[in-house]
Structure formats: structure tokens, C-alpha cells
């Protein structure tokens, strides 16, 4: 083979698997960050017992920007790009208005503070899921579903944290018991061997 053939073959080779995995993770980073921020907001609301008004609004705007940025390369033509911006702007304005209705003082009197955080997360999840459907984006729809699933998961965790604590104590106790047994068995076997000799 000549050098030009080697260069042609080298340029058509697929990138190594580590590079493809790193590129895939880099592409999924905005969705993972949005999910972590949403769960962190609910956790902070549950601990501090104060609703994070600005935080949820920022997160809704950030997810709206992620929606536009991820679909922008696929959008052809100025008219389609303007339609993408306006439809997403109107969609997320509607989500923000609904969130602010939930944060009005009259509505706040009906809901405890931790429930407000969960309701805001659920509205954000619904808005994200619907944005993913309208954009035909599997990642954005999955992000909305994942955010929605965290709501019952968080409430279930709060109710069953005592059971998790008991289970952890039980597992630690069993682990210590088996570990101590293993430490004793080799010593007794070695003393039996010394007695026979």
C-alpha cells in the first residue's frame, strides 16, 4: 500500500470507542445538568421549607434555551428558525405564568412549602415533556419524564427513609457479623493444623 492509500484509510476509520463515548456524554450533559438542578431545587425546598421562586424561573428559562439550542442545527431557513424561537418562547412563558400562579400568596396558603416545590417541579417536568414532543426530541421528552418520575420518588423516599435507615443498619450488622466470622475461621483452622503437627 502506498502512503496515500494509508492516509485515505486512516481518514475513514471510525473514531475510537472512548472518543465516541466522551462525545455522547458531552451531548447529554445539558440534560443531565437540568435534571440534577431540578432535583437539587426540590431537595433544598424540602430542607429549608422555603420555595425558591427565582430558581424555578431560571431553570424553566434554561431548559427553554436548551430546547432552542439543541434544535437550532436541524432547523433550515430563517422562517423556521423564527418559528422555533417564538413557539418555544410562548411555550415557556405559559409554563412560567403557571408557576407564578402557584406561587401567589392565596394559593400558597393552601399548600405546604415542600408541596410547592414538588408542584413546581411537576409543572417544569410537564413543560419539558411537552416541549420535547413538539420538537420531536427524544432527549428533551426523556428529561421531562425523568423530572416527572422524581416527584413520586421524592415523596416515597421521604415516607420510607426510616425503612431505608433500618435496612442499612441491618446490612451493616450482617456485614460485620460475617466479617468477624471470616476472621475467626482461618485462625482456628491454622491452630488445628499446628496441633496435628
Order of helices and strands: HHHHHHH
Strand-pairing-aware structural class: mainly alpha
Share in helix: over 70%
Average pLDDT level: 77
Estimate what percentage of residues fall within beta strands: under 5%
Oligomerization? single chain
C-alpha geometry: flat
Query: Can you count the helices?
Result: 7
Domain count: the total is 1
Largest sheet: none
> Can you count the beta strands?
0
Terminal-residue CA separation = 71 Å
Low-confidence stretches: 4-8
Question: What's the gyration radius in Å?
Answer: 27 Å
Give a structural overview:
The structure is a single chain. This protein has 197 residues and is an all-alpha fold. It has one domain.
SSE layout:
Elements: H1 3-12, H2 17-48, H3 53-71, H4 78-102, H5 105-108, H6 113-135, H7 138-196
Characteristics:
single chain, 197 residues, mainly alpha, flat
Summed up:
This protein is mainly α and 197 residues long.
Amino acid at each position: 500500500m502506498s502512503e496515500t492509500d494509508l492516509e485515505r484509510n486512516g481518514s475513514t476509520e471510525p473514531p475510537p470507542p472512548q472518543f465516541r463515548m466522551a462525545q455522547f456524554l458531552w451531548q447529554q450533559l445539558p440534560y443531565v445538568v437540568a435534571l440534577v438542578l431540578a432535583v437539587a431545587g426540590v431537595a433544598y425546598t424540602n430542607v429549608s421549607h422555603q420555595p425558591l421562586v427565582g430558581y424555578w424561573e431560571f431553570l424553566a428559562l434554561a431548559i427553554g434555551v436548551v430546547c432552542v439550542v439543541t434544535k437550532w442545527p436541524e432547523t433550515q431557513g430563517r422562517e423556521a428558525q423564527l418559528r422555533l424561537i417564538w413557539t418555544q418562547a410562548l411555550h415557556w412563558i405559559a409554563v412560567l405564568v403557571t408557576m407564578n400562579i402557584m406561587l401567589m400568596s392565596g394559593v400558597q396558603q393552601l399548600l405546604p412549602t415542600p408541596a410547592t416545590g414538588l408542584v413546581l417541579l411537576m409543572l417544569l417536568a410537564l413543560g419539558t415533556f411537552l416541549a420535547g414532543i413538539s420538537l420531536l426530541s427524544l432527549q428533551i421528552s426523556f428529561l421531562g419524564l425523568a423530572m416527572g418520575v422524581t416527584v413520586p420518588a421524592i415523596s416515597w423516599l421521604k415516607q420510607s427513609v426510616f425503612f431505608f435507615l433500618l435496612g442499612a443498619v441491618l446490612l451493616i450488622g450482617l456485614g460485620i457479623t460475617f466479617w468477624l466470622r471470616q476472621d475467626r475461621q482461618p485462625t482456628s483452622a491454622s491452630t488445628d493444623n499446628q496441633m496435628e503437627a
